[in-house]
Predict the 3D structure of the following.
Amino acid sequence: MNAPLDQHVLVLNRLWQPVNTCTARRAVALLYLGHAQVVRSDEESNFWTHDVRSWLAHSEEVARRSVNGELRDVVIHTISRAFVVPRIIVLGVYDRLPKKEIKFTRDNVFQRDQYTCQYCCIRFEPKELNIDHVIPREKGGKTTWENVVCSCIRCNTKKANKLPEQAKMHPRTVPKAPRWRPMFGLGRHSEPHFDESWRFFLEPSSARVELSA
Ligand SMILES: [Zn+2]
């Protein structure tokens, strides 16, 4: 379990479109700077926004209620007051987020390749996937976006240290660095950091169904 301030917060732009996630620490800083407001929702997908003052008031209220009751929110207690850790923020005037480089990580390679083995084209769970060097490292292949693909263990073993031509195994798409997209990293709703309250923004179709029900 992450520390409360390391939790992921969904970031919405002024049009309430999801653009990113950040840590709760960053979200609180943006809130205090007046660059963002906290978005709070209930189970019926009603939404409220809060600036710092009203969020502190809400936090006090939640802390009071939590003395006896069930607690849905994560509350941290500073020396003087309670503070509910936000789950969603909406950006205000300063709407432009710096363009981010997508980090070259195993998980992001899996995501780029949509958890699909690039040789047999079957989709797998992350634990059943490997990183395959298209040009094997032994033959001078580098560990870069352009030379690694997602591969199932079976295909990875079959290809071993052979060149694509030798193994007659070519990746289905030419690997390259993924273009930055706001939603990159938010795609898998089964991830531990995914918060239920984000669903409304990340799955518009399910939100629509709920609204018309
Ligand atoms: Zn495969």
User: Anything to note?
Assistant: The pocket of zinc ion is lined by residues 117, 119-120, 122, 151-152, 154-155 (CB under 6 Å). The longest helix spans residues 52-66.
